[in-house]
Amino acid sequence: GEFRLLDFDRLSVLGSGNGGTVHKVSHRRTSALYALKIIHRGHPGAADEVEVVRRVDSPHIVRCHSVLPTASGDSALLLELMDGGSLDSLVGGVFPEAALAEVAAQALSGLAYLRSRRVVHRDMKPANLLVSRDGHVKIGDFGIAEVVSRAGKYRAAYEGTAAYMSPERFDTERSRDGGEEDRVDPYAADVWGLGVIVLELLMGRYPLLPAGQKLTWAALMCAICFGELPAIPDGLASRELRGFVAACLQKDHRKRASVADLLAHPFVAARDVAASRRALCQVIEQRCR
Ligand code: ADP
User: Fold this and answer.
1) Residue 73: its pLDDT value, please?
2) I need a surface site. Which of 61, 196, 207, 270 has the fewest CB within 10 A?
3) Residue by residue, what is the 3-state secondary structure of 75-134?
4) What mean pLDDT do residues 205-232 have?
5) pTM of the predicted model, to two decimals?
6) 17 CA distance to ligand 1 centroid (A)?
């Protein structure tokens, strides 16, 4: 059916970022709950975000039911409400490995779908993975996502959070449209981002700089492009989990695992699906209480 903005009551603010504010809203007639994200017209990338959300439709992506015009000329995305919020609020607590495997598996399914639609997300970070209390993990926020052209060309620019940027994305000269052999696989950046997310949830803090160090652009660039991966404390992770993270956080994008490789990785493929789902629900439930 057709939705209009005036059919909704704003209940609370769910979050805000660069693009605008996200409200929890209720549809007056049906009482159904949604998340409403206002995207300011003047914001760079506003048109791209609308284009991408119209292009994608998958159980692993936060669903956009409608794009509504506002009185001031902005756009409002009527999104499926994810009642567990985003994964950034779960950083710092205990995150059992089974629950991590479930996050990784579902995020990878989302990335595999995006790839089939030739979409690069480019802003994979805990705040952009949304969860529901029944254990679904979905990719959201297409604020700087991009559709890769048939020729494989895409925009290369410093955008997104430097903390989650892959090494090759710091090298814009090359990633733009250099020669054939120089060309960067645009999808590899999202795999890197997923690796940082998994490691961050495991370690309970941003993992690529020592605890307490300020996340300045220069410190991040050095750590990401040239630094060693942090040592995961003994006993904190299985061999499979260590291998998975190392495959995602391979600095050379040509050697980095692909989404398809990772879906077949034992950390994900050999997990007990029911137990992992339960473990994830428990983590979400504990936070929501
Ligand atoms: P921005 O592009 O401004 O970063 P996001 O789309 O990332 O905006 O949303 C900001 C925050 O709002 C998210 O981190 C999340 O906490 C909350 N949020 C966004 N979309 C939803 C949703 N569909 N359901 C529940 N919370 C959401």
Assistant:
1) 86
2) 270
3) EEEEEECCCCCEHHHHCCCCCCHHHHHHHHHHHHHHHHHHHHCCEECCCCCHHHEEECCC
4) 94
5) 0.92
6) 7
